[in-house]
Amino acid sequence: MPLGSSPFNGSDSKRQRPLPIPRTSAGMTTFTPDSSTVSDVIPSANYGDRNKGRLPDMIVLHYTGMPDVEGAITQLCSAGTDVSAHYIVLEDGRIVQSVPEARRAWHAGVSSWSGEEDINSCSIGIEIVNRGHDWGYPDFPSRQIAAVTALCRGIMLRRNVPSHRVLGHSDVAPARKKDPGEKFPWHSLANSGVGHWVQPAAIVRGETLKLGSIGDDVRDLQLALARYGYGIPATGKYDGLTMEVVAAFQRHFRPARVDGIADRSTFTTLHSLLSSLPAEALAVAAK
Ligand SMILES: [Zn+2]
What we know:
Structural class: alpha/beta
Number of strands: 8
Bound molecules: zinc ion
Oligomer: single chain
Number of helices: 9
Helix content: 25-40%
Shape: globular
Radius of gyration: 20 Å
Largest sheet: 6 strands, mixed
């Protein structure tokens, strides 16, 4: 803090910046927010009906991946972009809702989890404002994480979303997406009952499976990842997709090293997660 300045100088320093409301949203019908944590409603033009009335039982977390919040809100709310999310969480902790939870927002794209492919129909999408890997990938401020946690807790209670169905975009689209990324503090959310988490096993030297490996060990790894929910066939070949799925797993559950190589720590962490899942969660994915 510069000499002579004080956090208590006048009220202006505490006043929050007004939210950037895209012109295209100005005439749109507003709605009552679903969550008491919401500070502003900025209706998006981009949404539809959930397929066959599917009720959401999953939360997908994203980062916006854009240089500034104005651009992100414009992108998520303006007609013609074909993208949206139910919620946008700003760096200062304010929460904007732009699609009612009852509607299908367009956040996940081509995705899959536990054998289900229309992730937009079964999920609630939350965009967390962060510039992302292409723009320096800053840390997530603690106020923002507290806001995401409170929002998720409310959704989980109201919608009966189990912890193991709070996921990252990279989990449901590992070949295309990295968000919210390895800096996202999943362990802090888990301390508040949001998301499934076990302490990652320590990284040690030893044998690994990696690109080019072939055999039953690779097949067992693929089956274990699929049992957890990842969209991966059991081919027995450690191909590009296997590497991307392992990297997505590490980004979420073993963030100390994200290299797409299945080392001992990756295996151990995956198996502790599987053994701490409720039985009904395992029934779906194994095929
Ligand atoms: Zn995303």
